[in-house]
Design goal:
Layout: E1 15-19, E2 41-45, H1 51-56, H2 63-75, E3 80-83, H3 92-98, E4 103-104, H4 111-117, E5 123-128, H5 136-141, E6 149-153, H6 158-164, H7 173-190, E7 194-199, H8 208-215, E8 219-220, H9 222-233
Parallel strand pairs: 1-2, 1-3, 3-4, 5-6, 5-7, 7-8
Helix pairs in contact: 7-8
């Protein structure tokens, strides 16, 4: 039997997730709910990182505590690290430089890849916590500034916005689903060239199935990205199949 060395108190949590300091419920499907994934994840709450400070204020003072929390996740054995808010794209370069494992702060990093999957005449529909906050700096931070897109903000889905941006501690899931489906459907009606959705807002993920069913468009979010990265950092030996 080979020698196996330790040095930590826990093992097997390949993906670390930096979470905002929130009180809203994170239902299954949310990146902040461990049951969303079929592999173990490890969470680290960044105290003081409220949705308002990250989304609307885009407070640069949060960079230091996010880097420190990411380094703690790396020290705990995580092989890749992500976050629960796509606006942390603004910190992508600095946070990636501060750790020695893959760091993906935002689902928006998928935009250039998704663009190349679509026809040249198609655009991406971006679902975001607030459309006014999705400024050119955010897109440029992840190399998505030149990607053709249209934006839909959750300020037009008030039950979602009041929970996940205003940090309310209860949710009516049926109302949220109805409002998000209506938001995405309106986007496609106004811009039929939308070929796929990419979600900045990580909390949209719990309703990704409903949005896809209503619009017929692929739905890329932080959950699809996390599963993709996990498959890269934890490769399984290929023993099944046939020739």
């Amino acid at each position: 039997m080979p020698i196996v060395r330790g040095g930590r108190g826990n093992y097997g949590e390949a993906v670390g997730i930096l979470t905002l300091d929130t009180i809203f419920p994170r239902i299954p499907g949310d990146v902040g709910n461990a049951t969303t994934f079929d592999f173990p994840v490890r969470f680290a709450v960044v105290r003081g990182a409220s949705p308002r400070r990250v989304v609307h204020e885009q407070d640069p003072a949060l960079l230091k505590p996010f880097i420190e929390a990411a380094q703690e996740l790396e020290a705990a054995g995580c092989r890749a690290i992500t976050t629960t808010c796509g606006f942390l794209a603004l910190f992508q370069q600095e946070m990636a430089a501060a750790v020695g494992v893959p760091m993906f702060t935002s689902s928006l990093m998928q935009m250039p890849i998704v663009q190349r999957m679509l026809r040249p005449d198609q655009v991406i529909g971006v679902l975001t916590a607030h459309s006014d906050a999705l400024n050119p700096r955010v897109l440029a931070a992840v190399g998505a500034e030149g990607v053709p897109h249209v934006v839909g903000g959750s300020q037009d889905a008030p039950d979602f916005y009041n929970v996940f941006v205003q940090n309310r501690d209860w949710i009516d899931t049926d109302k949220v689903e109805m409002q998000l489906v209506a938001l995405a459907t309106r986007m496609v009606e106004r811009e039929p060239r939308i070929g796929a959705f990419v979600c900045e807002g990580t909390n949209f993920s719990s309703w990704g199935h409903a949005i896809q069913a209503a619009t017929g468009r692929p739905f890329f979010d932080i959950v699809t990205m996390t599963r993709w990265v996990y498959a890269a950092v934890v490769r399984r030996a290929t023993t099944d199949g046939f020739m």
